[in-house]
Predict the 3D structure of the following.
Amino acid sequence: MPTVAFFDTKPYDREPMTAVAGDVAFLFHEFRLTSETASLSSGAAAVCGFVNDRLDRPCLQQLAACGVRHVALRCAGFNNVDLVAAHEAGLVVTRVPAYSPHAVAEHAVALVLTLNRRIHRAFARVREQNFSLAGLVGFDLYGKTCGIIGTGRIGRVAAEIFRGFGMRVVAYDPFPISDWAATHEVDYLPLEEVLADSDILSLHIPLTSDTQHLINADTVRLLKPGAMLVNTSRGKLIDTTAVIESLKRGHLGGLAIDVYEEEEGIFFEDLSDQVLQDDELSRLLVFPNVLVTAHQAFLTREALAEIARVTVTNINRVARGKPPLEGTLVE
Ligand code: NAI
């Protein structure tokens, strides 16, 4: 029976995981996995980590010293794992690359609709019996241009949904998929042209050293004045300082984010009784044209069930010396 130390758990991921656990014994920890907490994996064959666990070299070395052999990430992104250190420590790293591209793409679209039509503000107003419409003017999506950066699994679903609104969709990806683009009437363009053409720009790329701060002081200036920027991928794709400046100048017309550069230790936690120490996040939260959700794009029943199925299958396979499911090994 493989024992698995499960970090940064919340009721919504514990439940689906337990439902498919079978022989796997989970030791659930509410705190995150870092070099300070790694020793609590002692006796476990595997650890199960999430997006804000910090699997750096000291953490991974400790895990290996505790006898852990498998790091099973219950997410798609793996930018928080030092892969060189993991492999040197003899750890197998797996992830869940495609649990539901629809969950994330649909959340990106939900953010766009909410921010554009000021649904978040309207909801708060009518609860106060304020039925005025001043300040709630949006724009038709129909006929506007949506730019998709990254036409992987999630970006393609998002592009198809935006096409459904009658938008022109332009995209940038170093590995374009021409058949798909032709079928859905999506035009691949150079990055600068996508930035300049888009009324809505949605990021669907992994965080790597190449993509970190893709949106920075220089590139944000290339955006069409009044454009809306959407990020459901990873916070560090955006230089928050540059984006705040652009919002203050009135160049960027709106910002909808499910991820934030410094979300580690903040997102997933109830900090409602505390004074928020992050000044840039505090600033973002008071813009009328900024919408922030706390990394919940993955949070659908279907996605959680698939994450649990793939994670438990891989834990069993690796524990029995079998290769993990195809496409889930992080190399
Ligand atoms: P994917 O691997 O299927 O697609 C990524 C695409 O980005 C690929 O087509 C790749 O060629 C492209 N790409 C790489 N570098 C690029 C660059 N510099 N410019 C333009 N395109 C580039 O990944 P998938 O499944 O679509 O996920 C995208 C990202 O969404 C993940 O890396 C993850 O960070 C994020 N994500 C966020 C979730 C949330 O809850 N907010 C949940 C799941 C994923």
Remarks:
- DSSP finds twelve helices and twelve strands in the chain.
- The pocket of NAI is lined by residues 76-77, 98, 101, 104, 149-155, 172-175, 204-207, 210-211, 232-234, 258-259, 295, 297-298 (CB under 6 Å).
- The longest strand covers residues 145-149.
- The CA atoms of residues 147 and 194 lie 6 Å apart.
